[in-house]
Amino acid sequence: MRQVAPERDQDRETADTVRRCAVTRALRPKDELIRFVLGPDGAVVPDLKVEEAIAKGRIIALVHAREAADDGCRKLDAKLRGKKGGTSLPAVRVFTVDELGLASGRTNVIHAALIQGGAALKVLAAASRLERYRKGSAAFRNPNELDTNNE
Prior knowledge:
Blueprint lengths: L5 H12 E3 L6 E3 L6 E3 L5 E3 L3 H7 L2 E6 L5 H14 L7 E2 L4 H8 L6 E5 L2 H18 L16
């Protein structure tokens, strides 16, 4: 049986918490840096707010653009599950990048978070109806789903 040297464990821990700034090349704690990602159109955009909202623990669902990369969606979903003690929460993937941008007043919105509150529940219900409509199954409503008409 091979044991890992303590230095390697420490290196691994440091690698998980420290990143190199692309501009200054300085090593900084990752929570002090802004992560940039490629949007679906190839534009470089800052990756803000969703991870911060997950850390605060008030999210009831994640919203991923239909064009979002599966890997990015999986990572955010896993972070949210980890924060919620392994409980899986809804992920909405019915809107395009343009639709999310229109709804939020921003450009290149790939991921968003719904924060606890009545408006978030209405967004989930509306997204569910939109998904059924787009799939052509609006007539086959699931009685367990949220419906804003009954609120």
